[in-house]
Amino acid sequence: MTTDRALIIIDMQREMQHRIDAGRPHVNPNAPAAVAALTVAFREAALPVIHVRHAEADPASPLHPDAVGYPAMPCAADLPGEPVFVKTTSSAFPGTGLEAYLRERRITDLYVVGAVAGFCVNSTVRSASDLGFAVTVVRDAVIGFDLPSAGLDAQTIFDVTMGLLAADFATLRDSAVVIGTLSSDPVRP
To answer: What SS3 state is found at 130?
Structure first.
């Protein structure tokens, strides 16, 4: 079976939950539940679920592959056979093989969720658009944090990021709309 759509889960790793549990200001506290619901919906529709994880070389980093923050959050755990791409840059495309994977399978429409809105989600969406993919950001399934060093709160960063992405790089949808579309739209052979 071939399809032209896939869910891409960016950096939904335990470090994100650790930040939330530590009280770090953030948007979309229900994002993990939205990611879980989307994952189920894509799987039930026999559409690909693609996982992207961030790895840091520094052993002291919470995103080092041996660190407790590296594994996927439960909402984003991969099933056997689902691809996992490990990135070391902000975008999920450089050095990962993600583009080749998508092109080999003729996947043209990407539904992007995950963390963090102003960084890796932003970079991945822009790269995907520049590569010619049609991108939908499922905004209630994206986590965004504050940036205290710049004096920016989480909501402002999220709103500006989503506004910029919607202006030129992606369509924005909420998870209920995407799930509704999947359940009413049969998989195309």
So the answer is: helix
pTM for the model: 0.95
Three-state SS annotation for 50-68: EEEEECCCCCCCCCCCCCC
The answer to whether 45 and 13 have CB atoms below 8 angstroms apart is: no
CA neighbor of 118 nearest in space, from 64, 71, 51, 165: 165
For residue 87, the cross-strand partners are 54
Label each residue of 80-114 as H, E or C.
Answer: CCCCEEEECCCCCCCCCCHHHHHHHCCCCEEEEEE
Q: What is the CA radius of gyration of the chain?
A: 16
Cβ density class 125-150: b for 16+ within 10 Å, e for less: bbbbbeeebebbbbbbbbbbbbbeee
The per-residue pLDDT for 185 is 63
**Amino acid at the residue 84:** V
- Asked if residue 76 has pLDDT above 90, the reply is yes
**Tokens 């056979």 belong to residue:** 81
